[in-house]
Specification:
The protein folds into two domains: about 200 residues, Rossmann fold; about 100 residues, Methionyl-tRNA Fmet Formyltransferase, Chain A, domain 2 (Roll), CATH 3.10.25.10. It is elongated. It has about 325 residues and is of the alpha/beta class. The strands form five sheets. It has a seven-stranded mixed β-sheet with strand order 5-2-1-6-7-9-10. A five-stranded antiparallel β-sheet has the order 19-18-13-12-20. A four-stranded antiparallel β-sheet has the order 14-17-16-15, covered by helices on one side. It has eight helices and 20 strands.
């Protein structure tokens, strides 16, 4: 039953792929709600969300409320006569909004709930060394990511997976799960399950403090953290090079499990390769971006940059 009147809510590229899939499958999207335009860059030019750009390219009605409780927004939403709302990577909704449609409001979350509730589930699954994750659709309730589960799909996390590659796989998987969820809702074929009340791993927002590399940790932990932040927002570190301290972002790396006597963070340069000593092995840096410079591979960096004998990551 594709004549259900659907409002889609989302902001980033991940959400665009889901919306695009619904549009291509001819679902009846009567409105799109996304973040307000924000000034960005040196010129403070207004930056439109990825969802807004896509929605406008398809001539979909776009709403950009700054206050989801405002009377004007609620009236505009009511005027759309919504049957179902779909939320993908948006913000927390007030009860008046998520309760409005006849068939309710469901969210797509990029984890196997109840694991990894929060803002960055794809990143944290890799950072914590998980071997599987997935996508979940659930009906929204008063709390964040706690509503009754509709459907789930599972996917393996490869040993060399980055957040970039996993993000794209989950985006594809999520698009099909949303389609399946809409169909089940429209057919009245829904059996939800309550999320178990257990202490689940969280997926908090990524900030400067929790994206810094701790070179004192085990080789597997350091490796997982770097790939779990590659390519966005990227794990970072400071480099002590003689008297200079340089900030750097680390992207692609390999790990080498090997016993050694080097201090944690010691930088070893050999055969045009940058190795960093950590517990039980080394992290081999393939791609790096020094502050004020462009991202480059290790060999290119070493052609124009010299690490001192006592250089270390701190």
């Amino acid at each position: 039953m594709k004549n259900l009147r659907i409002v889609f809510m989302g902001t980033p590229d991940f959400a665009v792929a889901i919306l695009e899939h619904l549009v291509q499958k001819k679902y009846n999207i009567v409105g799109v709600i996304t973040a307000a335009d924000k000034p960005a860059g040196r010129g403070r030019k207004l930056n439109e969300s990825a969802v807004k750009k896509y929605a406008q390219s398809k001539n979909l009605k776009v709403l950009q409320p700054t206050n989801l409780k405002s009377e004007e927004f609620l009236e505009n939403l009511k005027d759309l006569k919504v049957d179902l709302q779909i939320v993908v990577a948006f913000r927390m909704l007030p009860k008046t909004v998520w309760q409005m449609p006849k068939f309710g409001t469901f969210n797509l979350h990029a984890s196997l709930l109840p694991a990894y509730r929060g803002a960055a589930p794809i990143h944290w699954a890799i950072i914590n060394g998980e071997t599987k994750t997935g996508v979940t659709t659930f009906f929204i309730d008063e709390k964040i990511d706690t509503g009754e589960i509709i459907l789930q799909k599972e996917i393996a996390i490869l040993n060399n997976e980055t957040v970039g590659s996993l993000h794209d796989k989950l985006m594809f998987l999520g698009a099909h799960l949303v389609e399946e969820t809409v169909d089940k809702i429209s057919e009245g074929n829904i059996k939800t399950i309550k999320q178990p009340l257990l202490e689940a791993k969280e997926a908090p927002k990524l900030q400067s403090e929790n994206t810094k590399i701790k070179w004192s940790e085990d080789v597997h932990k350091v490796y997982n953290k770097i790939r779990g932040l590659n390519p966005f927002p990227a794990a970072w570190t400071n480099i002590q090079n003689n008297d200079e301290e340089i900030s750097a972002k680390i992207y692609e790396v390999e790990k080498l499990v090997e016993q050694h006597n080097y201090n944690d963070g010691k930088i070893i340069i050999a055969n045009k390769e940058i190795k960093v000593a950590v517990k039980n092995g080394f992290v081999i840096i393939k791609d790096i971006k020094l502050s004020g410079k462009k991202k480059m591979d290790a060999k290119s960096l070493l052609n124009g940059f010299t690490f001192s004998e006592n250089a270390k990551m701190i």
